[in-house]
Write a structure and sequence with these properties.
The complex is a heterodimer of chains A (110) and B (113). Chain A has 110 residues and is mostly beta strands. Chain A contains no helices and eleven strands. In chain A, strands 2, 4, 5, 9, 10 and 11 form a six-stranded mixed β-sheet that branches. In chain A, strands 1-3-8-7-6 form a five-stranded antiparallel β-sheet, with no helix packed on it. With 113 residues, chain B is an all-beta fold. Helix content of chain B is 0%, strand content 57%. Chain B is globular. The chains are: A mainly beta (110), B mainly beta (113). At the A-B interface, strand 4 and strand 5 of A face strand 9 and strand 10 of B.
Chain lengths: 110, 113
């Protein structure tokens, strides 16, 4: 299975702190994406990083990709209570549907 | 318009009922998806439509029947469901099939009694 595994499963931090979550996957990929899901709602696309990229930024988000280790990390800087959500990585290997990881539940305490 | 809409938001049905979930997008996307998501789990792909044709069926029981009347609409017909089918049902769309970014609707919370 190509399914990603996020680590940690759950993370609780204080507002203003940085949050880091990791994703590991098993097979070669074309790109890796991160999605956010607020409780009981749809997923929102955050950022996409292609297999030939090593780092990407979007606002307070920083994503890294290490294809040799088949892993990615999502860093959220200066977290806010509104960042409380579940975060999923999703991998795309071409000609296959996106495969979602199990997710990290982030709680940001005000 | 970058929105995917889903109706209804909540649905409660008995095991003998027939109901339908609806999804709509006006982004000109040619691929549409149905996912099922249980609590604290990732979305599980059910069906993929590409150019209004069913391209992927992830071995979903026949009590779930998808339909794509046109390029903007996607339905999921439900019949004789089981309590274990209670979940959040998410619709998504993308520019083309099996590419980059998917845009998700807010989901329908389904409870089967």
């Amino acid at each position: 299975s190509q399914q990603g595994e996020e680590d940690p499963q759950a993370l609780s931090i204080q507002e203003g702190e940085n949050a880091t979550m990791n994703c590991s996957y098993k097979t070669s990929i074309n790109n890796l994406q991160w999605y956010r899901q607020n409780s009981g709602r749809g997923l929102v696309h955050l950022i996409l990083i292609r297999s030939n990229e090593r780092e990407k930024h979007s606002g307070r988000l920083r994503v890294t990709l290490d294809t040799s280790k088949k892993s990615s990390s999502l860093l959220i800087t200066a977290s806010r209570a509104a960042d409380t959500a579940s975060y999923f990585c999703a991998t795309w290997a071409g000609n296959t549907p996106l495969v979602f990881g199990k997710g990290t539940r982030l709680s940001v305490i005000a | 318009d970058t929105e995917v809409t889903q109706t209804p938001k909540h649905l409660v049905m008995g095991m003998t009922n027939k109901k339908s979930l609806k999804c709509e997008q006006h982004m000109g996307h040619r691929a549409m998806y149905w996912y099922k998501q249980k609590a604290k789990k990732p979305p599980e792909l059910m069906f993929v439509y590409s150019y209004e044709k069913l391209s992927i069926n992830e071995s979903v029981p026949s009590r779930f029947s998808p339909e794509c009347p046109n390029s903007s609409l996607l339905n999921l017909h439900l019949h004789a469901l089981q309590p274990e089918d209670s979940a959040l049902y998410l619709c998504a769309s993308s520019q083309e099939t099996l590419t980059d970014t998917q845009y998700f609707g807010p989901g329908t919370r389904l409870t089967v009694l």
